[in-house]
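Lecture 7 notes: from sequence to structure.

We start with a single chain of 308 residues. Read the sequence below before looking at the structure.
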Amino acid sequence: MSHDLYQPLWTLLAFVALGWLCARRLAVDPRPIATLLIYVIAPLTFFRGLVQGHPGLDDLALTAALFLLASTLALLVGQLAKRVFAPPEAAVLAFSAGTGNTGYFGLPLAMVLLPPEGVAQYLFCLLGITLYEFTVGYFLSARGRFSMRASLARIVRLPLIYAFAAALAVNALGLTLPGALMDGLDDFTYCYTVLGMMIIGMTLGRVTLREVDVRFITACVLARFALWPLISLLAVWALQATLAIDATLATALLLIGVVPMAANVVVIAMELDTQPAKGAIAVMLTTLAAPLVVPPYLGALQALAGLG
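Now the structure, written as tokens:
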């Protein structure tokens, strides 16, 4: 299993390196790309995934559970962070604590590790975290700079919420969308991963050493590589004891716990202008560590969960 993971891991890091080169050599501005990801590519990607997935109550329960877990963690970490960091840094830390790179990074790994039904389960878990990012998480990030009213107004403008509602409506009404439309939307899936990883490198290409904040980076790394793996393992143990979940869903949940920090920490911080450089450094460090950390970490968690 570990061997299977290394090729997609290095490919994803290559996208980051390509983004860095684009920023350094071509002076590409990552801000318009962040806007495209938030307002166009992510909503269309998840609309297509939901329409094709035909979610049932069990699937939506996974989405709701991950949304509530991510929101709770972000709110708790945000309260603690306010005591230590300035508002912009505390807002970025709170946002990052509730999420991980489950989409741009984790989805290609899920497609390697899991059978088709497991990938579908992973997608509904991912959707819960993505909904957190563009609702509660976005609000917490915006509050680092904007008033409550302005923060709520920004959330109302986010199209991913409406894409989610539209996809549920399509499924509830039993509508069949034209094949040409679905094929066209498939192209956005590849843009989603490539641009999401490249934007980390683009942001790093504009970073200077004075923006390195050891306390902030340490807090981000602990939230991602200590708190989340522990919670995902506890969740799997609890679900195995109560609902007897299968190994496929357990692996999907454990994978969510070991991915690096979310690239959307950079995307949303850039959109809101709340310390994107500091967020990019922390994201990059956890992403660079991924080939060394993720395979053995996931293997150890699987062993503790009794998955072989």
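The two ends are 11 Å apart (CA to CA). Keep this in mind for problem set 3.
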